[in-house]
Write a structure and sequence with these properties.
There is one protein chain. The protein has 253 residues and is an alpha/beta fold. It contains eight helices and 15 strands. Helix 1 crosses helix 2 and helix 3 packs across helix 8.
Length: 253
C-alpha cells in the first residue's frame, strides 16, 4: 500500500532522509544522513538515494527530493552548490528509474515553504504567505491559500544594484561580522521590497539562523506580520514527502 511516503533533503554536503507521517508532519523513526558524493553528479547522487531508501524497507510510498535548483516538471534548470551536470537533467525520471520508486523533485526552499504552511508557522493561514530561508543565500517560497507558486527565487531580486542575498543572507552576516541590529537593517530593506512587490499577509523566516529569531526579528521594521519558522531541520524532508504525495503527472513533459 502506498501509505508511507519518504522525504529526502539533498544538499551540497549531506543527503538526509526519513519516512514521514503526513498527518502529523513528523518523521517515522530516525532520520539518516549520508555524505553527498563528490562530484555530486545526478548519477552518483541517485546511487546514494537507492542506498538510503534501502534502509527503510517499510516505507513504500512516493519519494520526494529537495534540490538546491530551479525545478520545472521534474527537470533541474539551475545548480546551486551542486554539480553543474544537474542542469537539464530530468531528475524525476532518473531517480524513479534508479530507485524503482515514484520520485518527485522540488526546489529546497519550496519544500520548506510547503511544510511551514501545512504544519508550521503558517498553518491555518490563508492569503499570501512568503517563506524565506536565510542561509548561504536566501531561498523563498510563495504560497497562496495553500497552493505553491514554485521557483520564486526572491533572493535574487536586485536591490541597490546587487542580488539581495549578497547583502542580506546569513552567510554575509557571518562573513562581515554584522551585529544583529545592523543585519536587521539590511533585512528591513529586503522585506520592505517584498512588501512593495507582493503585499503578503505573512512572512515566515526559516533557515538555521531562525533559532536566534528573538535576536533580530523584532528589529525588522515592516508592516507585514513576520514570524520564525517552526519545523527547523524537519522542513525539507517533510515538505518533500508532501510534494511527492500530492504531485500529479498532468503537466506536459
Amino acid at each position: 500500500m502506498d501509505t508511507v511516503p519518504f522525504g529526502i533533503d539533498f544538499g551540497g554536503s549531506g543527503i538526509k532522509g526519513a519516512p514521514v507521517d503526513l498527518d502529523a508532519g513528523e518523521f517515522i523513526g530516525d532520520r539518516v544522513r549520508i555524505e553527498t558524493p563528490q562530484p555530486s553528479t545526478p548519477e552518483a547522487v541517485a546511487g546514494v538515494f537507492a542506498e538510503l531508501l534501502g534502509r527503510f524497507p517499510d516505507s513504500n510510498g512516493s519519494v520526494g527530493v529537495t534540490v538546491p535548483a530551479v525545478v520545472r516538471n521534474g527537470v533541474a534548470s539551475s545548480a546551486a552548490n551542486i554539480d553543474r551536470a544537474w542542469i537539464g537533467t530530468d531528475a524525476d525520471a532518473l531517480f524513479t528509474e534508479a530507485t524503482g520508486r515514484d520520485v518527485h523533485v522540488v526546489n529546497d526552499a519550496d519544500a520548506a515553504g510547503l511544510a511551514e504552511v501545512r504544519y508550521g508557522a503558517a498553518k491555518g493561514r490563508r492569503g499570501l504567505v512568503i517563506v524565506t530561508t536565510l542561509g548561504t543565500g536566501i531561498g523563498s517560497a510563495i504560497v497562496y491559500d495553500g497552493v505553491l507558486v514554485p521557483n520564486s527565487e526572491l533572493g535574487h531580486l536586485e536591490i541597490d544594484g546587487q542580488d539581495a542575498e549578497k547583502a542580506a543572507a546569513n552567510s554575509v552576516r557571518e562573513k562581515q561580522d554584522l551585529s544583529w541590529s545592523k543585519w536587521a537593517k539590511r533585512l528591513t530593506t529586503y522585506y520592505r521590497t517584498l512588501e512593495k512587490l507582493f503585499s503578503p499577509d505573512l512572512f515566515v523566516l526559516g533557515g538555521g539562523v531562525s533559532k536566534h529569531a528573538d535576536q533580530f526579528v523584532p528589529l525588522i521594521d515592516v508592516e507585514t506580520e513576520i514570524v520564525p519558522a517552526q519545523l527547523k531541520n524537519r522542513a525539507g524532508i517533510v515538505g518533500a514527502a508532501l510534494w511527492a504525495t500530492e504531485s500529479t503527472d498532468e503537466a506536459p513533459r
